[in-house]
């Protein structure tokens, strides 16, 4: 047992009494200003549990730990919830906490261990999260009243923080000791982690619609596989020009053989797919695409997956997949807030798994080749749901507007056309 650990075990009640009532409101405010309401906080080295209790009172979820069993027991009683006994070296969480509070606790970590300790805490912080720490202002290491201390100033703490990645912002300030009999100065650090990059998440809406991503992927692929629960004419009309273009493209020398392979798998799930959309898919099929309908027979078919494959300059497989929430409808492709996550290969073997599952579904006996006879039978029995079951599921193509010549012809007809 180290001298510092022995100190807290033997002096736990005195330390608790001296620190539990200190006013920390200003420090709490600075920290919590950057934390979402109800966020999950880690009080790392919580001591008396004073700060954790204040966070709980404001509606935050709090996990707390301390290396001293005696202090952890007192803090548990104070908080009304369990405080774990563990050390910084035992922090193994990843991207779990919205905020990490290490108030006057890291100052017992030797400088040689500080980078690894900070890395563990930083790894436990969510992207966009905030980390607070404090040290007694100074330089070097020292022993005081049976405890080991590592002091820090702005330059020293900055050097430690340089070992962390994805640091978005660092703010330091100095403050006086909250205990009235103490004249020491403290260095406070508030460090924000960068938010997660959104390059792989297509979030939809006006700012990031799905359609442009699909069109780029279509033109960059040699093999295109689409699996969606339903297809609406409003959405298919947006994709048809690009799909037809890659079905008809030729090589640089004008020779055939460079056309893309296009496969579409949709379903009769809830009778949402438009018969008119299926007839448009027949036009695509006549140009060389393969289209199949998965007959649900009362079951579910809820896929939304878009897979694109090709080869790099060395002839190696490259691929991209979008898997998420968008069916083929105008709203899902252009206007709706739909999340579709992009997978790139090489890099993510999930692309290979998705491709393999598509092959299995496309070969299933319930996946029938699309035909005019199937569409006729479907149209005769179709009973679409009275309410929308997904964004765009009740979209209809607008009625065609007559041309000026057609309007004049309608006016001249001797029959009453419209009631």
Automatic annotation (TrEMBL):
<feature type="domain" description="Phospholipase D-like">
    <location>
        <begin position="260"/>
        <end position="349"/>
    </location>
</feature>
<dbReference type="Pfam" id="PF13489">
    <property type="entry name" value="Methyltransf_23"/>
</dbReference>
<dbReference type="InterPro" id="IPR029063">
    <property type="entry name" value="SAM-dependent_MTases_sf"/>
</dbReference>
<dbReference type="InterPro" id="IPR025202">
    <property type="entry name" value="PLD-like_dom"/>
</dbReference>
<dbReference type="Pfam" id="PF13091">
    <property type="entry name" value="PLDc_2"/>
</dbReference>
<protein>
    <submittedName>
        <fullName>HKD family nuclease</fullName>
    </submittedName>
</protein>
